[in-house]
Amino acid sequence: MERPAPSILLPTLAVAACMVMWGLSFVSSKAILNTGFPPMTMVLLRFLIASAVLLPVQRRLQPGLRFPRRGWGRLALSAFCGTCLYFIFEPRGIKYTSASNAALLTAGIPALTVAAEYLLYRRRARWHHVLGIALSIVGVYLVVRRSQAQYDRPVLGNLLMLGACLSWVAFNL
Asked: What is the largest distance, in Å, between two alpha-carbon atoms of the chain?
């Protein structure tokens, strides 16, 4: 007897919810930072709340999960780049630029990842990948360039967000 096809509704809703929460994180971070809340305190509280919510879920869904000993070095390096460095750059970047600039700049992470893969691993991108990267860079530039005048130090904020993007690329690789 054939199994019924699994519903794609739940995974689709989960992905949509993740996209909404990720997009709102820039807006909520900007609002919190505008009150004078220290950036690293905000990050610490964010991780404490996430850990309090997600660790019990992980333990329920995957009881007894163990990480292999030989992977700890790579895990530590990955955590340093994707968690520590990223969250040193991101809240400070958001403080000095707009939430929309921050979100747009982080949308360039896939393009930067493809470029880094080429530089580090000589992994060739197809023409449509290169075209997508070029369009992404031009689009981000056009949007970010127009909104510079509204903020005290937008170039600094955008450079800090670029640092966040590069640390996330290192995390991905």
From this structure: 66
* Nearest-angstrom CA–CA distance, 126 and 132: 10
Quick check: 41 and 91 in contact, CB under 8 A? no
Distance CA 67, CA 49 (A): 23
CA triple 44-166-18, angle to 5 deg = 55
Only one residue has tokens 């780049």, namely 81
Q: In sequence order, what DSSP letters do the residues of 58-69 get, joined into one string?
A: HHHHSTT----G
Q: Kindly give the confidence (pLDDT) of every residue in the chain, 173 residues in length, as a single tens digit, with 9 standing for 90 and above.
A: 566 566 888 888 888 888 888 778 888 888 888 898 888 888 888 889 988 998 899 889 898 888 788 888 888 898 888 888 998 898 889 888 888 788 888 888 888 888 888 888 988 878 887 888 788 778 777 766 665 556 667 789 889 999 999 999 999 88
